[in-house]
Amino acid sequence: MTTAASSPAYRRLSVEQRRRQLIDVALTLFAHRAPEDVSIDDVAEAAGVSRPLVYRYFPGGKVQLYEDALRSAADELTLCFAEPQTGPLTERLSHALDRYLAFVDTHDTGFSALLQGGSVVETSRTTATVDGVRRAAAEQILLHLGVAESAGPRLRMMVRTWISAVEAASLIWLDEGKQPPLVELRGWMVDHFVALLTATSATDPQTAEVTRAALELERADGAAGVLVRRVLPMLTEAAHLL
User: Fold this and answer.
1) Fold of 69-234
2) Rg (CA), the chain
3) Which class for 119: exposed (0-12), middle (13-18), buried (19 or more C-beta within 10 A)?
4) What does pTM read for this prediction?
5) Mean pLDDT of 83-97
6) Which of 100, 131, 195, 219 has its Cα between 20 and 30 A from that of 163?
7) Which residues contact residue 25 at a Cβ distance below 8 angstroms, ignoring those fewer than 6 apart?
8) Confidence of residue 127 (pLDDT cuts 50, 70, 90)
């Protein structure tokens, strides 16, 4: 039996404050347990309120609460890629990835459940919400490349491929016990973007133009410069063997 000493003190909140509190509590629970393992009773207990009160705010039960919590998480994830359009592109990507990976680290189990699907509370709306995060992230990247309105199919496909790779790498990182360290994972993802951009430039004039413009802003000691110095000797050696 739960005692008053072990439960959060009940506070009278406004409608919006209470709704926000319940969503925040749900997000915390979903962050560490798969959605199907979290019940309305769990949310009520963690929030220090009654089960009927949770249903008053979310008459659709756990599905509605999950969908609203997911939308809240999606808004946070989308903001991860919002970065001022100044400075080297690799630095902007690094800042965005730092925020994204911090979210992954904090919401590990919940993040896996959201992206891998298969949850008993998954709906067409939750699927659309997750896909919306991917599309919003891709649009942010294209904005940083200066082609938000004019990106061709190859460049758009390259960016969306990278977003998918970031998701996959994040899930694998969780599965591998959060190794390598986050800073190394972030650096590798930035290198991956530069490599994809360069490879696509070889066959797509628009991407080549975008790449040249991006490289002009890079610093010699930045991520792109370091990657070039590491890879160039291998490419030069390979060229002699062909």
Assistant:
1) Tetracycline Repressor; domain 2 (1.10.357)
2) 22
3) middle
4) 0.80
5) 94
6) 219
7) 43, 46, 47
8) confident
